[in-house]
Amino acid sequence: MGPRIGPAGEGPQVPDKETKATMGTENTPGGKASPDPQDVRPSVFHNIKLFVLCHSLLQLAQLMISGYLKSSISTVEKRFGLSSQTSGLLVSFNEVGNTALIVFVSYFGSRVHRPRMIGYGAILVALAGLLMTLPHFISEPYRYDNTSPEDMPQDFKASLCLPTTSAPARTHSNGNCSSYTETQHLSVVGIMFVAQTLLGVGGVPIQPFGISYIDDFAHNSNSPLYLGILFAVTMMGPGLAFGLGSLMLRLYVDINQMPEGGISLTIKDPRWVGAWWLGFLIAAGSVALAAIPYFFFPKEMPKEKHELQFRRKVLAVTDSPARKDKDSPSKQSPGESTKKQDGLVQIAPNLTVIQFIKVFPRVLLQTLRHPIFLLVVLSQVCLSSMAAGMATFLPKFLERQFSITASYANLLIGCLSFPSVIVGIVVGGVLVKRLHLGPVGCGALCLLGMLLCLFFSLPLFFIGCPSHQIAGITHQTSAQPRPELFPSCMEVCSCPSDGFNPVCDPSTRVEYITPCHAGCSSQVVQDALDKSQVFYTNCSCVAEGNPVMAGSCDSTCSHLVVPFLLLVSLGSALACLTHTPSFMLILRGVKKEDKTLAVGIQFMFLRILAWMPSPVIHGSAIDTTCVHWALSCGRRAVCRYYNNDLLRNRFIGLQFFFKTGSVICFALVLAILRQQDKEARTKESRSSPAVAQQLLVSGPGKKPEDSRV
């Protein structure tokens, strides 16, 4: 190509590629590039539209990988023996790394190469996703029946009622416990916690740096449209995560190392564990591919000079004289806004890190003194707590409450719940726009949406399935007297205490945790056209010695899952109506120079008070409803059976509690706004006669200095 030759007189002071691209666009009339031959063919990456496309795909992939764990939370619990409280803490660690660094984004934002920082963060997210799959590869193959550690296809025979002489051989599962086993379990869980923390750290620069980059270099009229496209595409990420989980959990967990002879489990078996790790591999690969273009975008690019043509046509049709009158003051004083931009966000680049840390608490307390801001943030904390608990444990709740598979639960949530969230956010924004809602109108819309959400949550307490009758675990009701569920007939069988191979007596709909607990001594396999059904016979603990079927008893009310989820989706849409109006209340409730900082403080509080503790709170509440725990080396592992009525009341009750808190906060916000509006009107009415008298005294040619109210 040869050396670059610039205009005469420049000498060696040739600007770099990025600066020259900016100068060539901004320093010429009309924003047209100079006819320099170096600028005739600008780089394809000096295009803000391409950046919007790349950033939409990246945030879509990032939310997909961060939401994927929620879609497979019950599967991870079964695979590694975790309680719901531990799995909730695992989900919360995604926010720990994010919260620890998000405060400093505003400080370093103007000093770094933002596209490259986004690329580095995305690479870290991809590596964290790969790290999440490591426990699968370093762990032993999944044994879905502890009574058969060597040959998994023999799980049915190993669960039969054997004479007491073989009792020592039936207790080996706890005998395998050693310091190595416990250390391996702790290391596997520790790896997942580290991966979740890195996942949060990697996501820190992606959204704020991307939004600020688009806002800096897009045309002022196009920036809202670009950000709207970005958020619309991004919101599909969690839905895709649950769709991906639905597909992956239909595959067996050890699909890469299947035992000889295959497995005897079906997807409906409660011991089934899907290929949870495969989704992390796919999502991590997507993030890595989406990160590549960011290493080619410049630190600064030419600011977009032209408004999008189709947007101009739409505005030409929808614009009204009122809009023009509303925009005219800003045209008359273009420098007014820049004079007021002297808040902490503007002076942050001139502060050292120590000075920034010292001044931040003072500005934080000053911002929290605004009552509207504080109450709206508290209401959003309640809503986010509700959303975090629902997103984390709703799949598991549907599995346990309605006896459906994890794959089907994820499919329903991805198809119903997340689209309703998007619809709610869009409708809320449209109502604010079309009705030209002020602060009082926004407060009223928020309160109305939450009241309707609370109303439609009441039927959820009564839509559910009763608990299964488990021999020896759940007690029979007095309304239906029947023989003792836990008879002494199985004592001669020396059944293992930690075995789990459920069977069902179809005549009485009583479930036994193993064939041994039913006193069965033989098995029969009946082959059908598409599948084989296993029966256990010679069962001494079953009435009339009837055979029992392998697997849990089918639920009689699984069909209620669809109306239940429709009500949940409707409530989610109504709650999301408050998204845009509550955000507008925050922006209008603080000073102009503090808006950016107020939004940052808002998201910091949402993470600390909602997204971090809420999954742990919901997981702890779910654990209190467990009636039978699996044991691993003497410690509680995963819960086998729940009390469905307690599970429904406590899970939905927590949701109802957070919704009630949000309603109270929005009611207080509306009361304060009405009081402020009333005081403003009173002040205006009192000042109107004085202004009119001053106009008469001053004459028709003069205007008083303070005539504007």
Automatic annotation (TrEMBL):
One of its GO terms (biological process) is monoatomic ion transport. The chain crosses the membrane at residues 89-110, 117-138, 188-213, 225-253, 273-297, 372-394, 406-432, 444-464, 560-587, 608-631, 651-673. Keywords: Cell membrane, Disulfide bond, Ion transport, Membrane, Transmembrane, Transmembrane helix, Transport. Residues 483-543 form the Kazal-like domain. Its main location: membrane. Pfam families: OATP. It is found in: Cell membrane. One of its GO terms (molecular function) is bile acid transmembrane transporter activity. The keyword Cytoplasm does not apply. CDD domains: MFS_SLCO2B_OATP2B. It is a multi-pass membrane protein. PROSITE patterns: KAZAL_2. InterPro entries: Kazal_dom (IPR002350), MFS_trans_sf (IPR036259), OATP (IPR004156). Residues 1-38, 319-342, 680-709 are annotated as: Disordered. Belongs to the organo anion transporter (TC 2.A.60) family. This is Solute carrier organic anion transporter family member. The gene is SLCO2B1.
